[in-house]
Amino acid sequence: MKKSSEDLKWRIIYCYEEGFKPKEIAERLYVSKTAVTKVCKIFNKWGCIDDPFTRRSGKRKIFASRDMQIQKIAYERNKTLHGYFMYQIGIEYSVEQLIFINKISKDERSVSCLYALMIDGFIAADIMEGSCDKDRFQTFILTQVLPQMNPYPGKNSVFIMDNARIHHDEDLVKSIEVFGCRVLYLPPYSPDLNPIETAFLALKSWLKKYRDVANNCDDPIYILFVALSQTTSSIFN
User: Fold this and answer.
1) Mean pLDDT, to the nearest integer, of 34-61?
2) Total count of domains within the chain
3) Is the confidence at residue 191, as pLDDT, over 90?
4) Which of 9, 53, 70, 209 has its CA 20 to 30 A from that of 232?
5) Rg of the Cα trace of the chain?
6) In a domain, 16, yes or no
């Protein structure tokens, strides 16, 4: 698995945390079992998806024992944030209020996908060729998602996003809050808290089941929308 995207590595970890075996993960995500085992081993040791002590191209970096200790502290801190987020969601919000936002791309040079998911299923999606920039993300939120939201504490009133840089836009957050909605961010390294990851696996399963249809479709964006329409709330049952 050369130059695997962070997206793919986190999906490996998500499946691993769900209890899937390396062989099952490899079959689901179309990667080698060796690659799955390597990513999981790094995550178990460091709490991240890349070995911080692997030599990379460019100027050599020298790590001391202090750096290793900092890495371990960061991992433990993330576990605390993870627990607090779960507590906050469970105490302050109902599942009907939550809308999860995520960007998924297999290869940003080909196709990128923006999704908005609620308990009943997907409420909005934008699938595009190439990578997604800040303007495209803002347009997706303001024109497709926000019109379906309600002021807090109504149904569909709380946005939940990961900590990707594209999601931290002050003007966008203000626009959402002016409408009366709230914005929450997932803790770092917490793809397991975003149900869109589960939905993505269901979408991939559909594409695998109907591989002949997908392979004979000239428009990859169209077939992704078809697969998306088949991904319903039943995936959470």
Assistant:
1) 72
2) 2
3) no
4) 9
5) 19
6) yes
